[in-house]
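Entry:
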Amino acid sequence: MSRAVTGNEIQQTAAEPLLRATDIRQHFPIRRGFFKPNAYVKAVNKVSFDIMAGETFGLVGESGCGKSTLGRTLLRLIEPTDGACYFRGENIFEKTPDEFGKYRRELQMVFQDPYSSLNPKMRVGSILEEAMSIHGVGHRNERSDRVIELLETVGLSSEHFFRFPHELSGGQRQRINLARALSLTPKVVICDETVSALDVSIQAQVLNLMKRIRKEFDLSYLFISHDLGVVKYISDRIGVMYLGNLVEVATAKELFDAPKHPYTQALISALPKTNPRDEKQRIKLSGEVPSPLNPPSGCCFHTRCPHATDICRMVVPTSRTISNNHKVACHLYEDGV
């Protein structure tokens, strides 16, 4: 089922990212009347990042920071307020609904709840055939054979073909969601808290399955989660979000070995110690996360940052390159230190 990558494709993917998000904003209007909105919930603010071919880009942050909203915006399940998303060099935000239809085969999503994302009145076989039928992929018998092949790929068997979602466990349902995403041979799969609703032992099985599938199908993942340990395990690079802003991006190893942004440092310090003899000082943040309805001026984190200065309260920091593949949006690193 995997496809060989040609030399020309390798050269192209090495030159530019497969997917590039540029200055994406998602602001939701709040209306208390029939006319102009009174205010906006600023869920995502000028977020930019790249995903290379075959890469897993993790996106982590507290609940309510805008991770899931960003993922849905990239697929235009929610129309963006502003910004651009380039897939294979084409800005898919500029496409009409009919033009964007051809990109849906290559851009898929796996949702958080493995049960509510499946139609309870349809059997597994019909669920997996539906997307292929809509996009005109193969004949009926070919689609049935393809479904059996997909079930085996995600570790299930042909006997699950005729089952209903309520007859499956949570891990099996999420495997069905993965199989459905793979049914159209996509290039990018956005995983929104894919394993958060599963038991820890089942999480490990699904994560290992996802890593194997990525190699077999030459996939790229945008893996959204609030679990730092899960993100570290599956990701090549990681972006950290806070209050709708991307504050730090680095390789998984560099982010955990040498976090730069004060918010990232606080998150990593809260991880449990694997060795009880290790001395690890936890960074405790004061105050609450500000409301996205009325975010603070300047740096979005300055109200809770132990290193905040006057410039943090007035000027929005820009993303600066600290080292290779490591970027941080913080005034502490204005000189690149």
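Confidence is low (pLDDT under 50) at residues 1-14.
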